[in-house]
Amino acid sequence: MNSSEITHPPIYQRLISERGDVLAETRTVAEQAQHEAREALDWSGVRRAHLRDDDSFSAFG
Q1: What pLDDT, in 10s, does the model give residues 13-27?
Q2: 3-state DSSP percent of the chain in helix, strand and coil, to 5
């Protein structure tokens, strides 16, 4: 069941109109945080840069 299939009681719709859809906002913020965490923890670019630099000159090794 996805979020478009969920039916809420009428009081829920009234609360949304009065207070905003906190659950939807929370879900969006959580998805953004997950996306940012994945990007922050993605070291694949560092590995690629390291592999490219292996054939360059180094005075220390």
Answers
A1: 888 889 999 889 999
A2: 65, 0, 35
